Amino acid sequence: MDTKALRPRTRIQTEKRELILEAALEVFSAHGFRGSTIDQIAEAAGMSKPNLLYYFRRKEEIHETLMQRLLDTWLAPLKELDDIGDPLTELRSYIRRKLEMARDFPRESRLFANEILQGAPRIKPMLEGELKTLVDEKAEVIKGWMRAGKIVKTDPWHLIFSIWATTQHYADFDVQVRAVLGPDRGGDGRFDDAARFLEQLFLDGLRPRPDRLA
């Protein structure tokens, strides 16, 4: 048994781990898992390789820790989708939260995208377990809104996928977005513009009308 893992971490140990994880996030998001090395992470963290390996034994352990944190962060807005609330208000809030994450966590989004593009070899159990369970749960919430006539009938899973795709685009393809919008529209206001457009796209499409509820 690893007795070191059982002992509470000191403040310095916690700070060192956070320093390593921050450096690893920068390296992994830039180079992907395969293109990143322990030496690169140690250099980015400003510490020696042996010192880093005291806190994390392998590159895989660092990556797994980052991916679990990322999944927890990514799922938080979806967990807040409330079946008691007004559907359009709940979905508007979800779209806004996802865009805020695209704005505030672009490196995390690129890290996740890199892992998915490689076939998700290190996080597939998370996707098939925790992620699938939550999406299935919220799909049932959305279907309940449909049965109650509060939004039009559609496929709830593909609705969630579409929100993911359109919001995370602003993190994963930010360089492209800013280049196409140009200097006049490519500043911080692009996220507000995106939010207004996506709200119109999704919410107007889901808003109930007598001819669309059947």
Number of helices: 11
SSE string, helices as H and strands as E? HHHHHHHHHHH
* Main sheet record: none
Portion in strands: under 5%
Under the CATH scheme, the architecture of the largest domain is Orthogonal Bundle
What integer value in Å does the Rg equal? 20 Å
Blueprint (SSEs and pairs):
Blueprint: H1 3-6, H2 11-31, H3 38-45, H4 49-55, H5 59-79, H6 87-104, H7 106-117, H8 124-147, H9 156-172, H10 174-185, H11 189-206
Helix pairs in contact: 2-3, 2-5, 2-7, 5-8, 6-9, 6-11, 7-9, 9-11
What features would you highlight for this structure?
mainly alpha, 214 residues, 2 domains, Tetracycline Repressor, domain 2, 0% strand, Arc Repressor Mutant, subunit A, 76% helix
What report would you give on this structure?
- It is a single chain.
- The chain has 214 residues and is mainly α.
- It has two domains: 3-57, Homeodomain-like (Arc Repressor Mutant, subunit A, Orthogonal Bundle), CATH 1.10.10.60; 66-212, Tetracycline Repressor, domain 2 (Orthogonal Bundle), CATH 1.10.357.10.
- Helices cover 76% and strands 0% of the residues.
- Helix 2 crosses helix 5, helix 7 packs across helix 9 and helix 9 (156-172) runs antiparallel to helix 11.
- The N and C termini lie far apart (61 Å).
How would you sum up this structure in a few lines?
This protein is an all-alpha fold and 214 residues long.
